[in-house]
C-alpha cells in the first residue's frame, strides 16, 4: 500500500512543478523550460541517491544493458512528453492541458500489457476507464467549434499523455531490470540515471541548436533551481510507486493531479470551473476511489 502515499505526493509536487515551468516558458520558451526539470533536477537526484545509500547502508545496483535501454527510452519519451505538455499549456488552459495529458492512464495500461506484461483485472480496468472519462469530461468545452487552431492544444495534450505513458513503462522496465534489490534503491538509481541521460541529450542538443535558451536558463537559475527540485522530488516518488506496483495503477491514482491543477487554475490563475468540469472531477474521484478500494480489499 506504500505506492498510494508515494503517488499522491508525486502528483502534488508535479502540479507545483508544472506551474513553475509554465511560468518559465515566457522567458525560456518551451524547450528551455523543458530542459530545466532535467538539468537542474539531476543534482538533487544524485543527493537523493547518496542519502538513500548512506541511510540504508545499501549498495547502488549495477546497470545492465536492459536497464540502460529501458531507462534511456523512458527518458527520451519524457523529454518529448514534457515539451508537448508545456506547448499545450502555452496555447490553452493549464488545467485542460493537464487533464488531456492524463489520457495517459488508458494508454499506459495498453503499453504496460504489451511491453512488460502487466495484466490488469476487469475491476482495475473499469477504474481506469471511469477516471479517464472524468478527464475527458473535464477537458471538453460544449459548443466550442473545433478548428485547426483550437484543436492543436487538445492534440498536444493527448500526444503528451502517450509519451508520458511510454516514459512510465520505460522507467518501470528499468527498475525491474535491476533485479530483486530494495525497491527504494532500484527506484532512486533509475531516477539518477534517467535524469543524467536526459540532461546529456537535451543539454547537448540545446548547446548546438538553442544556445540562447540554455544560457538564459543559467541566468534564471533561482526559479530554474526550484523547478528542478520539484521535478526531481516528484519523480522520486513516481519511481517509488513504479517499483511497488504496475505503472497503470500509479498513473491512474496520479489522476488526482487533475484536481490539484484545477485548484491551481481556480485560486492562483483565476480560471473558472463549470458544472461539467465538476462532474468530470467527480468521475475522476470515483475511478480513483474504486482503484483504492480494490487494493484495500486485496
Question: Could you give a short description of this structure?
Answer:
By secondary structure, the chain is an all-alpha fold. It has helices spanning 3-39, 42-56, 65-91, 94-101, 104-116, 122-139, 148-177, 183-209, 211-219, 221-244, 247-253, 256-267, 275-297. 84% of the residues lie in helices and 0% in strands.
Structure write-up:
It is a single chain. The protein has 298 residues and is mainly α. It is 84% helix and 0% strand. It has one domain. It has helices at 3-39, 42-56, 65-91, 94-101, 104-116, 122-139, 148-177, 183-209, 211-219, 221-244, 247-253, 256-267, 275-297. Helix 4 packs across helix 7 (148-177).
Per DSSP, what share of the residues sits in E-state strands of 2 or more residues? Answer: under 5%
How many alpha or pi helices? 13
Spans of 5+ residues with little confidence (pLDDT < 50)? none
Outline? globular
Largest sheet entry? none
Structural class: mainly alpha
SSE arrangement, N to C = HHHHHHHHHHHHH
Terminal CA distance reads 10 Å
> What's the average pLDDT?
83
Domain module count: 1
How much helix is in the residues?
Answer: over 70%
Number of strands: 0
Amino acid at each position: 500500500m506504500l505506492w498510494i502515499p508515494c503517488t499522491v505526493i508525486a502528483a502534488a509536487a508535479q502540479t507545483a512543478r508544472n506551474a513553475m515551468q509554465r511560468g518559465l516558458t515566457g522567458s525560456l520558451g518551451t524547450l528551455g523550460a523543458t530542459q530545466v526539470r532535467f538539468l537542474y533536477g539531476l543534482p538533487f537526484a544524485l543527493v537523493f541517491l547518496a542519502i538513500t545509500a548512506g541511510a540504508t547502508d545499501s549498495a547502488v545496483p549495477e546497470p545492465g544493458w536492459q536497464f540502460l535501454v529501458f531507462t534511456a527510452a523512458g527518458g527520451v519519451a519524457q523529454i518529448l512528453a514534457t515539451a508537448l505538455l508545456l506547448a499545450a499549456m502555452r496555447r490553452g488552459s493549464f488545467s485542460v492541458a493537464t487533464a488531456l495529458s492524463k489520457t495517459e492512464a488508458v494508454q499506459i495500461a495498453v503499453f504496460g500489457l504489451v511491453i512488460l506484461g502487466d495484466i490488469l483485472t476487469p475491476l482495475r480496468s473499469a477504474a481506469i476507464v471511469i477516471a479517464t472519462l472524468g478527464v475527458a469530461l473535464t477537458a471538453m468545452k460544449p459548443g466550442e467549434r473545433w478548428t485547426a487552431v483550437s484543436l492543436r492544444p487538445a492534440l498536444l495534450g493527448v500526444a503528451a499523455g502517450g509519451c508520458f505513458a511510454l516514459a512510465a513503462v520505460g522507467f518501470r522496465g528499468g527498475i525491474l531490470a535491476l533485479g530483486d534489490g530494495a525497491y527504494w534503491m532500484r527506484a532512486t538509481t533509475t531516477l539518477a540515471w534517467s535524469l543524467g541521460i536526459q540532461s546529456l541529450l537535451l543539454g547537448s542538443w540545446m548547446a548546438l541548436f538553442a544556445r540562447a535558451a540554455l544560457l538564459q536558463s543559467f541566468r534564471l537559475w533561482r526559479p530554474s533551481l526550484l523547478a528542478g527540485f520539484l521535478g526531481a522530488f516528484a519523480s522520486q516518488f513516481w519511481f517509488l510507486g513504479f517499483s511497488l506496483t504496475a505503472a497503470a495503477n500509479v498513473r491512474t491514482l496520479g489522476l488526482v493531479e487533475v484536481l490539484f491543477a484545477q485548484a491551481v487554475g481556480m485560486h492562483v490563475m483565476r480560471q473558472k470551473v463549470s458544472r461539467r468540469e465538476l462532474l468530470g472531477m467527480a468521475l475522476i474521484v470515483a475511478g480513483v476511489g474504486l482503484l483504492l478500494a480494490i487494493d484495500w480489499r486485496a
